[in-house]
Amino acid sequence: MAFYIPQILGQVKPTLTVDTLLFTVTPGNTVQFSVFICNQSSAYDNYSIALVPYGTVEMPSSYLAYNTALAGGGTVAFSGLYLNGGDSVYVQSTLGNCGFTATGIDFLP
Amino acid sequence: MIDTPQIFGQQMPPVNIEANLMTVGGSDQAMVNIFVANQTAEFDFFNIAIIPYDQSEQPANYIAFQTPLVGGGIVSFSQIYLNSNDSIRVSTLYGSCSFTSTGVRYSGPGASPYVPTVSGSIGGNAALQSLVTALSDLGLIINDTSA
């Protein structure tokens, strides 16, 4: 029997250029989620999002977005993302002005 | 589990006043879409914060912060998933934007049900061991038994 829990999976506003863990899927679970990115300054910032499979490290092929420009006050969303147990999402921005929110459904076995 | 499509909240906050758009019920969860409409001919700037239960608002909560919206403009945010008592707060710089949250409320048993713990000695009973293992594998019990 499987159960599912809609929830906020992670929220961070990383320090400039610091690669930061947004969340890791609990081993044994799976998730379906969306990521919302919000530039909280009036200047352009550049953001990166990496989906890192369990047991691997971040590499160029991990990125959904890399140094992607977001206008001041801008917001953007990525939807339809699915991860398995132990997979992780890492985020960063060049100037540290972007907030990241992941919300979705945690599927428990 | 009961799925109830509904309007969760509608607000048109005064200038620079933060308003609570919605809070998820105490034992519910929700999938929410937010629609923002600028009802004047001039630019306005809006904020949306997604706030986990039992936390105070902080920069990481924002999915929009002083985001410009052209006069007469609309924008939406889809598939925001929230757990019990999480809330959404909104505000605008000029008080010209309205906010509507609609979605599906998940309530009743099924989302995160009570799973009982079974403890004690199996006593070497192979059939009982098999039963406990099967129930545990199905997620129906937490197996805290001993052989």
Write a concise synopsis of the structure shown.
The complex is a heterodimer of chains A (109) and B (147). Chain A is mostly beta strands.
List the defining traits of the structure above.
heterodimer, A: 109 residues, Jelly Rolls, B: 147 residues, mainly beta, four-stranded antiparallel beta sheet, 1 helix, 8% helix
Overall geometry of chain B comes to elongated
Major sheet details of chain B: 4 strands, antiparallel
Using the 3D structure, state the CATH architecture of chain A.
Sandwich
Number of helices of chain A: 0
Low-pLDDT runs of 5+ residues of chain B are none
How far is the first residue's CA from the last residue's CA of chain A? Answer: 7 Å
CATH topology of chain A: Jelly Rolls
For the largest sheet of chain A, list the strands in their spatial order. Answer: 1-8-3-6
What is the overall pLDDT average of chain B?
A: 88
Instruction: Write down the secondary-structure element order of chain A.
Output: EEEEEEEE
Beta percentage of chain A is over 45%
Describe this structure in words.
The complex is a heterodimer of chains A (109) and B (147). By secondary structure, chain A is mainly β. Helices cover 0% and strands 61% of the residues of chain A. Chain A has one domain (3-108): Sandwich (Jelly Rolls). A four-stranded antiparallel β-sheet of chain A has the order 1-8-3-6, with no helix packed on it. Chain A has strands at 3-12, 20-24, 30-39, 45-52, 63-70, 75-83, 88-93, 98-108. Chain B has 147 residues and is mainly β. Chain B has two domains: 2-107, Sandwich (Jelly Rolls), CATH 2.60.120.20; 117-146, no CATH class. Chain B has one helix at residues 126-137, and strands spanning 2-11, 19-23, 29-38, 44-51, 62-69, 74-82, 87-92, 97-107, 117-121, 142-146. In chain B, the strands form three sheets. A four-stranded antiparallel β-sheet of chain B has the order 1-8-3-6, with no helix packed on it. Chain B has a four-stranded antiparallel β-sheet with strand order 2-7-4-5, with no helix packed on it. The radius of gyration of chain B is 23 Å and the shape is elongated. The A-B interface holds A 1-8, 11-13, 33-34, 36, 38-40, 42, 73-75, 77, 79, 99-101, 103-105, 108-109 and B 29-31, 45, 50, 52, 58-68, 77-83, 86, 106, 110-113, 138-140.
